[in-house]
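Box 3.1 A note on notation
Throughout this textbook, protein chains are presented in two layers. The first layer is the amino acid sequence; the second is a token string describing backbone geometry. Keep the layers aligned when reading.
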Amino acid sequence: MPPGGRQVLGADLGVVDHAACAGEEPELFFHGDPGAIALAKRICGRCPVREACLARSIANDERYGVFGGLTADERQELQGRRAAA
């Protein structure tokens, strides 16, 4: 499997270099503190590759961290809503 997990169809992963989190400490996105989660989500909110990041985290079944502006619990809830639809 390539670094970062498997590819997501339709996602231009070459733009990951332009992710808003590129210059941030990775630990911020895996911290359980509510303040850190809020900051990570704000960073994701201004990210040009947010949707690709979210799609890749769901495809790779990421169980920790903030990806695409959502926590693991929020991603799981989103998947549940999509499955129910």
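Helices lie at 34-45, 50-59, 72-84. The two ends are 31 Å apart (CA to CA).
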